[in-house]
Design goal:
This is Dihydrofolate reductase. One of its GO terms (molecular function) is 5-amino-6-(5-phosphoribosylamino)uracil reductase activity. Residues 4-180 form the Bacterial bifunctional deaminase-reductase C-terminal domain. It comes from Brachybacterium paraconglomeratum. There is one protein chain. It is built from five helices and ten strands; from the N terminus they run E-E-H-H-E-H-E-E-H-E-H-E-E-E-E. An eight-stranded mixed sheet has the order 5-4-3-6-1-7-10-9. It has helices spanning 32-39, 46-52, 68-72, 108-117, 129-134, and strands at residues 4-11, 15-17, 61-67, 86-90, 101-104, 122-127, 141-147, 155-156, 168-175, 181-187. Strand 3, helix 3 (68-72) and strand 4 (86-90) form a beta-alpha-beta unit. It has one domain (4-187): 3-Layer(aba) Sandwich (Dihydrofolate Reductase, subunit A). Helix content is 19%, strand content 30%. By secondary structure, it is of the alpha/beta class.
Length: 189
């Protein structure tokens, strides 16, 4: 069965973006980028990967989920940032039609449960924190790109919510000279 994987960059103090939705402090150069290019090339926006000559075929994910604010990061330059994947944006706001982009105000949990029953690759939860909170019970894996800095405030990895503690097991950690570490956790079943 397909898994829902929350793969996201996060600061040491637990934020996926700053208070004004900025993410420009995240390191985008250094030895950790080799790890992204090797294992997670499909998580690079289509146009950027093409410009860099990065092959995006055969990746782990074939679907990406985003909230409206995460999707808006690339607008208007990239209305369909991950055209090589099935993109689903959860929002009540209307968005311009774009290639391989589904915009919905459906219940994210119901959509994910339906996706998990279909054939295909894993489902990448790209962000944001409110969507992650809505989907917390459906997340099978966390893949955190821990960045070596503090935001101090911003968009948390998970927005505040009411749910029981859930345990995940450590799968692996890889740390790079840049100070960035990739840590994977799997939901304890």
């Amino acid at each position: 069965m397909r898994e829902l994987v929350y793969y996201v960059a996060v600061s040491l103090d637990g934020y996926i973006a700053g208070p004004d939705h900025q993410f420009d402090a995240f390191l985008i150069e250094g030895d950790h980028m080799e790890g992204i290019n090797e294992e997670f090339a499909v998580t690079i926006p289509t146009d950027i990967a093409a410009h860099l000559g990065i092959d995006q075929s055969g990746g782990r994910f074939d679907t990406v989920l985003m909230g409206a604010n995460t999707h808006a990061v690339g607008l208007p330059d990239m209305p369909s940032p991950y055209r090589h994947l099935q993109q689903i944006v959860f929002t009540h706001r209307p968005l311009e039609p774009a290639e391989n982009l589904r915009v919905t105000d459906e219940d994210p949990v119901a959509v994910v449960r339906e996706l998990k029953q279909q054939d295909g690759g894993d489902i990448w939860l790209c962000g944001g924190g409110r969507l992650a909170t809505q989907l917390h019970g459906e997340i099978d894996r966390l893949l955190l790109k821990r960045q070596p800095f503090l935001f101090g405030d911003g968009i948390p990895l998970f927005a505040p919510g009411e749910y029981a503690p859930e345990q995940f097991e450590h799968v692996r950690t890889r740390t790079y000279e840049t100070g960035v570490s990739f840590t994977e956790f799997a939901r304890r079943r």
